[in-house]
Structure formats: structure tokens, C-alpha cells
Write the C-alpha cells for this entry.
Amino acid sequence: MDISSAGLRVLRQIAESGSFTAAAARLGYTQSAVSRQAAALERSAGTTLFERRPDGVRLTPAGLTLLRHAHTILASLAAAERELTGTVPRTELVRLGVFLSAGAAILPAALAYLAAADPQITVTTSEGTTPTLTRALRAGSLDLAVLTSRPPHRPFDGDSPRLHVETVADTELVVAVPSTGEFAGRTKVHVDELVDAAWIATPSSSSEPLLGVWPGLPGRPRIVHSARDWLTKLHLVAGGFGVTTVPSRLSPVLPPGVSLLRVDGAPPEIRRVLVARLPGHPTPAITAVTRAITSTALDFPAAAPSRHELRLSHGED
């Protein structure tokens, strides 16, 4: 096969992005250029590498095989470039992905722990939904990812081999509401009371979940504000502009004016926090970052705090 490094980078980005259009945007190419690279890869490989689907593009088994080799080839090229330019890093790099609320609830403490225990390790981070991070792991753009799942905790994707997954903790999904107004002074809310609530949600698509609305809500939610940033959503709640769902582990970082309520009249929504990586023997740096995450995550409350706890702290998805 005569395959260029540019072609392998396109393959990796398509695997991570899930579409030719998104891959082109991230690589700075036109969509037609990415399509041509994809077609050239398939001609060189002599087989179909990409499965075109209504919800995007996925790699075929042959594409996944080539992707595994692409990881090694591109990593070797990057190492050769560093040696030739004299920029061999003095620290070990781990590329970490975190789901949308883990940045506030888990990441700062884990990085502080790591800085004290293993200062020779450098961590770069990126944020995304669990499906996005799973694709990035498969594509080799991430070394490790903090993901979340709901019961019955099925595999994150259907690709083989399975990701190596380690459970960090379970957390309860609760509703963040303004501390004043109709929910003032309460610790619980019935699900029927939330039917007509104004919801603040994260934008979703056919391949990404809707975050911020109670999963068992009867009827269609009334979404009045859409935002990905957790600080934005919680400050909108504090201002009385709507309600949103949050994992109870966010209670230590709530802004003033926000209370957390458990939901009655519906089964509890438990979210599991996990650390995932590609299968195989991890590097010592990846093991150290995993240990920092699992050690510090235990310091956060697993259940919704009481009103008293919220006052002390000034106050999934």
C-alpha cells in the first residue's frame, strides 16, 4: 500500500469527528479535499474503509484495522520530528478528555494531586460529550478519557476490541433551581412539577445526547436557554431564568443563589463516572493520571447535599 501520512491524519480525524465535514473543519481542509483523501485511502487499501450513514461516518472493520496502525505510524513520525528538531520533551505527555461537568467537579483536584505526586507528567485536556470523547479515544487523539454512563452501563461503542474501562464513582442526578421563588427552602421536587418548567439545556444532535433536562420528564420539555458551558447554565439558574440537571458532585462548586433538589415520582437517575483508554498495557504516565483521578474523585460528595451544606458552600450529564 502507498499511503501518505496526510492520508492517515485524515483517517484519524474522520474517526474522531464522525463526519467528513467536521474532519475538514478541524484539519483546515475543504470537504472535497477530505473526500479525495478518503477515496485515495480506499483505493490504496483495496477495500472500503468508511461506512456512510445517515448520522455520519464510521470506520469499517478494515478502517479500524488501518487506524490502529496509523496510531503507531503517526506517533513514530512525531517522535522522529522531535528528535530531528531537538525538541524531545523533558516530561511525559498524557492527553486527557473529560465529559462536560467533570472539568469543574474532578479535573482541578486531579491535576493538583498529579502535580504533587508526579511532576514529570504533563497533562493536556479537552472537553466533550461522552460519544465525542469515545471517538477521540478510538482515533488516538486522546490517551485517556473521563466518561459517564447510565444504567445498564452498556459498552460505549460497538467497536472491537473493547475499551478498557475503570469505574471511578457513582453520582446522583439532581435538579439545580433558583434558591428564591417557587422552590425556595425545599430539598425535593415532584417530577410532575417540572413538566412546565423552563429548562436550560446543552445543545444536542442526532449523535449527541440532550443534557440538562430531567430524563424521565413526562411530555416535551420547554427549553428556553441553550448553553454548553456549565458556569453559564448555573448562573442562568441563579438569576431565576430556568432550571437544569446536574450531577450532585457539582455541589462544592455551585455559584450563590443555586439549590439542588432531588426528584420524587420518578426512578433515581444514577450516573457512573469512569476512566477509559484503549486496551493494552498502559504507560506509567497514563497509570499515574488514572490514579490521580480515582483518588481525588472520592473527595466529592456522591449524594445531593442538604440545604445546610449548600449554605456552607455559598450557595450527565
